[in-house]
């Protein structure tokens, strides 16, 4: 999906988003108000340079545009699998990006993520999954790990994983399964500008993903485990 087409649908009141080295940045109008836009395109893998570039854009927004909403447009094949980046500690750079997004949240910036094309593994974790709420388009491709790779890592036959994926969204890719698990809040099929405006108005920094996963039947234990741990913690403190 071309990012320019998506940007036109999301921001009919105008934007100045530009692409540089597969990184998107700029500002836009949503319901007459200014928002900052950060993202990636062309399925680019997130390496050291791109993680730093995105982190810089987030920090610049915090410095120059206090409390502006931030919209993250997501299209990435995940973490860059390159020896140089691994030796430089790509995990730390991606963690830095995640911390910058969390800093923006703590400084009062509503943050919305939109998977408009592809979202895989670490590139998704440190972008869309760090937002207050993440959404996806119907044709988006979302997964943490493909079933062939999962089979190699877990030593479980791919045929078995394919069968499990039919009934358990944890094993299955696609926006519908991430919706069931609470990983994304909704799938936007039309009226993108209206949906974005509503999402920004509804955004808060309460993490409801495990709660939504329980309500939707995609994650049946996460919220119960959280409640048990919190209850034990309160009991211990008393």
Give an overview in words:
- GO terms for molecular function: lyase activity.
- Keywords: Lyase.
- Its EC number is 4.1.1.88.
- It is built from eleven helices and eight strands.
- With about 240 residues, it is α/β, with parallel strands linked by helices.
- The protein has a domain at about 5-135 and about 190-205: 2-enoyl-CoA Hydratase, Chain A, domain 1.
- Strands 1, 2, 3, 4, 5, 6, 7 and 8 form an eight-stranded mixed beta sheet that branches.
- Helix 2 (about 50-65) links the parallel strand 3 and strand 4 (about 70-75).
- The longest helix is centred in the N-terminal third of the chain and has 17 residues, at about 50-65.
- The chain starts with a helix and ends with a helix.
- The model has no long low-confidence stretch (mean pLDDT about 90).
Query: Helices and strands, in N-to-C order?
Result: HEEEHEHHEHEEHHHEHHH
Q: Which architecture of the domain at 3-137 and 188-205 does the CATH hierarchy give at level 2?
A: Alpha-Beta Complex
Question: What percentage of residues falls in helices of 4 or more residues?
Answer: 40-55%
Mean pLDDT: 91
Q: What is the CA-atom radius of gyration, in angstroms?
A: 18 Å
Distance between the termini: 54 Å
**Helix/strand/pairing class, anyone?**
alpha/beta
- CATH topology of the domain at 3-137 and 188-205, what is it called? 2-enoyl-CoA Hydratase, Chain A, domain 1
Overall spatial form: globular
CATH superfamily of the domain at 3-137 and 188-205: 2-enoyl-CoA Hydratase, Chain A, domain 1
Percent of residues in beta strands: 15-25%
Task: Enumerate how many helices there are, as a single number.
Answer: 11
Main sheet overview = 8 strands, mixed
């Amino acid at each position: 999906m071309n990012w320019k087409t998506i940007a036109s649908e999301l921001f009919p009141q105008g934007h100045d988003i530009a692409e540089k080295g597969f990184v998107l940045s700029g500002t836009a109008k949503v319901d007459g108000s200014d928002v900052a836009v950060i993202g990636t395109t062309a399925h680019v893998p997130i390496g050291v340079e791109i993680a730093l570039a995105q982190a810089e854009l987030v920090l610049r927004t915090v410095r120059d545009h206090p409390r502006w909403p931030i919209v993250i447009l997501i299209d990435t094949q995940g973490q860059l699998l390159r020896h140089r980046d691994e030796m430089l500690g790509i995990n730390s750079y991606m963690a830095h990006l995640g911390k910058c997004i969390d800093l923006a949240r703590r400084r009062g910036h509503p943050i919305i993520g939109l998977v408009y094309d592809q979202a895989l593994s670490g590139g998704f974790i440190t972008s869309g999954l760090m937002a207050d709420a993440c959404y996806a388009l119907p044709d988006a491709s979302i997964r943490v790990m493909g079933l062939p790779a999962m089979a190699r890592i877990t030593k479980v036959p791919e045929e078995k994983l394919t069968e499990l994926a039919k009934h358990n969204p944890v094993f299955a890719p696609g926006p519908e399964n991430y919706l069931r698990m609470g990983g994304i809040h909704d799938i936007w099929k039309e009226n993108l500008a209206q949906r974005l405006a509503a999402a920004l108005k509804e955004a808060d920094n309460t993490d409801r993903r495990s709660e939504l996963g329980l309500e939707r039947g995609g994650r049946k234990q996460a919220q119960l485990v959280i409640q048990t741990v919190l209850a034990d913690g309160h009991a211990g403190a008393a």
